[in-house]
Amino acid sequence: MKYCGVIVNNESIALDKLFTYRIPENLRGFVEIGQHIKVPFGKGNKLKDAFVISMFDECENTEKLKEISDICAREPVLSDKNIRLINLMRKRYLCTYLEGIKLFLPRGLLKGKREKIKLVLYSNNELHGKYKEEKYASIYNTVKENVAKYSRNELSKEFDYSLSSINTLVKHGFLEIKEQRVNRVDERTFPHLPKKNLTMEQLIAIEEIMTSKRNEFLLHGVTGSGKTEIYMTLVEKMLEKGKQSIILVPEIALTPQMVERFKGRFGKDITVYHSKLSEGEKFDEWHRVKQGKVKIAIGARSALFLPFKELGLIVVDEEHESTYKSDSDPKYLATEIALIKGNIENCKVVLGSATPNIETYYKFKRNFWKIISIEKRVDGAEMPEIELIDMRQELENNNKSFLSAKLYEEINERLEKKEQIIIFLNRRGFSTFISCRKCGYVFKCSNCDISLTYHQKSGMLHCHYCGYKESSTKICPECGSNYVKYFGLGTEKIQDEMEKLFPKARILRMDHDTTRNKDAYENIYSDFKNKKADILIGTQMIAKGLDFPDVTLVGIIAADLTLNLPDFRSNERTYQLITQVSGRAGRGAKEGKVILQTYSPDNYAILYALNYDYHGFLEEELKIRELMNYPPFGRVMMINIYSENENMLIKGVHEFSHKLKAYYGGKYNILGPCPSHISKIKNQFRWQIMIKGNIEYADAFKIKNMVYDMSKSTYNKIKVGLDMNPYNTL
Ligand SMILES: Nc1ncnc2c1ncn2[C@@H]1O[C@H](COP(=O)(O)OP(=O)(O)OP(=O)(O)O)[C@@H](O)[C@H]1O
Ligand SMILES: [Zn+2]
Ligand SMILES: [Zn+2]
């Protein structure tokens, strides 16, 4: 082929298109789709990294075309299938090509040693990138036989050699210093875990997945139903076929447990891929996968993009978790990508959860895809009883503590019996909604049925969906009391208080503050697992997936905090959270119990959760979603608009919204503009516009261009961001 279309490594939106280059004679036959190459770009013809996306023999206006300069490595870094997926993402999530490409490549690939670029036919297959090399020493005996090999560190540690004596040894040929490439890979091993005898339900699920012609499965199994054992057997079956598997976990806090189970069962050839890895480690792991040395990947959503060649299985564990939605561009949803990838790569996709995402469940029903239900825990363990405590009543009884009398009593009882306890605090609710502590009344917007947010700056209550405002008050409009308060209670404070209340208890805490350190998750996990603590206090991190057989009591401090976030998913989140946290109790031989403290004991999400009634909740929630035209019945597109200049922003955003409404107001429901829930971040003021309806991709694309044109017309003084199907509307 004589020409190729390339994407240049440049972030600018204006460059989000294919540029055509001529392939010089001496490189013909060597260029391939998906290769990492160098091209001269712009006025100065500076060499830039680029990626080959298409190739062709016919082309118009060829006189002006520049030639590509070099191929960085013969082996393509992107496959055809990757490029197909990137194209789909560009349409679905309104991202640029480059943003899509970067998902598939470790950052280190574009870094590392820059060899002098010259026009050569690379015969080597080595990929460009940030490798790590370390000096090591080979030791020879008097007849020049190699007897041992040491790294520099080992050498000085073992023999206490000084630098000059090392040099002397080198001179006489007893020691040779060479550079060797090393892998920054965590090769830790774990004690072997034998296979379990599978239950009938597990066997049926596996059979169904392996024999079905279809690729997509929703595994709806109650907490503690042994879903992981199903995943492991599926992985094993894939290994037998010579295929690889990706296991996604929603939260880094869950990786130690997953890794322990998988490495314990399958040994090596596993990569653990998540955000806490350094750039170099990521590059090495990616490289290991690329070379076909890895059979199983366990990791965060980014693990979806690892370059496996024969992918057999993708598991998305706890598929309902909002962490599967990316919060930076492309703002993709990993469960969605998993399903699309399953289609492109023809591999099995298993979405597992005790509380499937409403949209996922609806999608499976609508498409007649397979939903596999497991309604019983393994070994006949019972679901723990959930006891609801009305915290308004506690206040009546003059208990001002965050612990109800009942929870206090239950904790003491478990401590005496030497059983373990989990205390869960809903961090996401740690915000600024307003409610009455006497009657539980929550201030809501009359147009949207979404709780109002207190804006400190204006002193007003805002609806950040439609822009409605009212002045704040200290008097409750429902009961007339003056107990109106906004919430705020952190895990640290809870730990302090609990240490005072239960001075003999050993207490651990897992939250953002205690897990800054890379190994912290693992340490806290194994300390609690090995019963080095009695109580584990935590946030969302400990809410799902964790399997501690000796936990018999779970206390939920304020179940309803998520209810009050201005988000149409808040009831769903509450239902899921309660079910998931409750699911941590009674997983072993001993019966479990849950104390659920709330100010909204009548809320339907809470009531359905009390009875583990997923289907009841689903039905009720779908009715509301349909009525309000929220997903899965319509799409939501969020336009976020920011600027340091507030006046300019307000003016710009209103002008833009007028234009938008003139074009699309008849077709879609356009809400706003209004200030974002968090109205200023890092000196940027933030506004938003929400579009609801059956938004067509073609329209979304046009709207995207309108939005970027608007930004361009202000010389980027107004910045914009787009989010299809937003999970975070703050
Ligand atoms: N067939 C089996 N026989 C005995 N024990 C089993 C079997 N399958 C699973 N288990 C054990 O049951 C416990 C719960 O399993 P697992 O953690 O996989 O549940 P889960 O369905 O993923 O729950 P959650 O939704 O809460 O994450 C684990 O300790 C697991 O080792
Ligand atoms: Zn009140
Ligand atoms: Zn509103």
TrEMBL record:
<feature type="binding site">
    <location>
        <position position="436"/>
    </location>
    <ligand>
        <name>Zn(2+) 1</name>
    </ligand>
</feature>
<dbReference type="InterPro" id="IPR014001">
    <property type="entry name" value="Helicase_ATP-bd"/>
</dbReference>
<feature type="binding site">
    <location>
        <position position="463"/>
    </location>
    <ligand>
        <name>Zn(2+) 2</name>
    </ligand>
</feature>
<keyword id="KW-0238">DNA-binding</keyword>
<dbReference type="Pfam" id="PF18319">
    <property type="entry name" value="Zn_ribbon_PriA"/>
</dbReference>
<dbReference type="InterPro" id="IPR041236">
    <property type="entry name" value="PriA_C"/>
</dbReference>
<feature type="binding site">
    <location>
        <position position="476"/>
    </location>
    <ligand>
        <name>Zn(2+) 1</name>
    </ligand>
</feature>
<comment type="subunit">
    <text>Component of the replication restart primosome.</text>
</comment>
<dbReference type="InterPro" id="IPR027417">
    <property type="entry name" value="P-loop_NTPase"/>
</dbReference>
<dbReference type="GO" id="GO:0006269">
    <property type="term" value="P:DNA replication, synthesis of primer"/>
</dbReference>
<feature type="binding site">
    <location>
        <position position="445"/>
    </location>
    <ligand>
        <name>Zn(2+) 2</name>
    </ligand>
</feature>
<keyword id="KW-0067">ATP-binding</keyword>
<dbReference type="Pfam" id="PF00270">
    <property type="entry name" value="DEAD"/>
</dbReference>
<dbReference type="GO" id="GO:0003677">
    <property type="term" value="F:DNA binding"/>
</dbReference>
<keyword id="KW-0862">Zinc</keyword>
<keyword id="KW-0639">Primosome</keyword>
<dbReference type="GO" id="GO:0043138">
    <property type="term" value="F:3'-5' DNA helicase activity"/>
</dbReference>
<feature type="domain" description="Helicase ATP-binding">
    <location>
        <begin position="208"/>
        <end position="374"/>
    </location>
</feature>
<comment type="similarity">
    <text>Belongs to the helicase family. PriA subfamily.</text>
</comment>
<dbReference type="InterPro" id="IPR040498">
    <property type="entry name" value="PriA_CRR"/>
</dbReference>
<dbReference type="GO" id="GO:0006270">
    <property type="term" value="P:DNA replication initiation"/>
</dbReference>
<dbReference type="GO" id="GO:0006310">
    <property type="term" value="P:DNA recombination"/>
</dbReference>
<dbReference type="GO" id="GO:1990077">
    <property type="term" value="C:primosome complex"/>
</dbReference>
<feature type="binding site">
    <location>
        <position position="448"/>
    </location>
    <ligand>
        <name>Zn(2+) 2</name>
    </ligand>
</feature>
<keyword id="KW-0347">Helicase</keyword>
<dbReference type="InterPro" id="IPR001650">
    <property type="entry name" value="Helicase_C-like"/>
</dbReference>
<feature type="binding site">
    <location>
        <position position="479"/>
    </location>
    <ligand>
        <name>Zn(2+) 1</name>
    </ligand>
</feature>
<keyword id="KW-0413">Isomerase</keyword>
<dbReference type="GO" id="GO:0008270">
    <property type="term" value="F:zinc ion binding"/>
</dbReference>
<dbReference type="InterPro" id="IPR042115">
    <property type="entry name" value="PriA_3primeBD_sf"/>
</dbReference>
<dbReference type="Pfam" id="PF18074">
    <property type="entry name" value="PriA_C"/>
</dbReference>
<keyword id="KW-0547">Nucleotide-binding</keyword>
<keyword id="KW-0235">DNA replication</keyword>
<feature type="binding site">
    <location>
        <position position="439"/>
    </location>
    <ligand>
        <name>Zn(2+) 1</name>
    </ligand>
</feature>
<feature type="domain" description="Helicase C-terminal">
    <location>
        <begin position="471"/>
        <end position="625"/>
    </location>
</feature>
<feature type="binding site">
    <location>
        <position position="466"/>
    </location>
    <ligand>
        <name>Zn(2+) 2</name>
    </ligand>
</feature>
<protein>
    <recommendedName>
        <fullName>Replication restart protein PriA</fullName>
        <ecNumber>5.6.2.4</ecNumber>
    </recommendedName>
</protein>
<keyword id="KW-0479">Metal-binding</keyword>
<comment type="function">
    <text>Initiates the restart of stalled replication forks, which reloads the replicative helicase on sites other than the origin of replication. Recognizes and binds to abandoned replication forks and remodels them to uncover a helicase loading site. Promotes assembly of the primosome at these replication forks.</text>
</comment>
<dbReference type="Pfam" id="PF00271">
    <property type="entry name" value="Helicase_C"/>
</dbReference>
<keyword id="KW-0378">Hydrolase</keyword>
<dbReference type="Pfam" id="PF17764">
    <property type="entry name" value="PriA_3primeBD"/>
</dbReference>
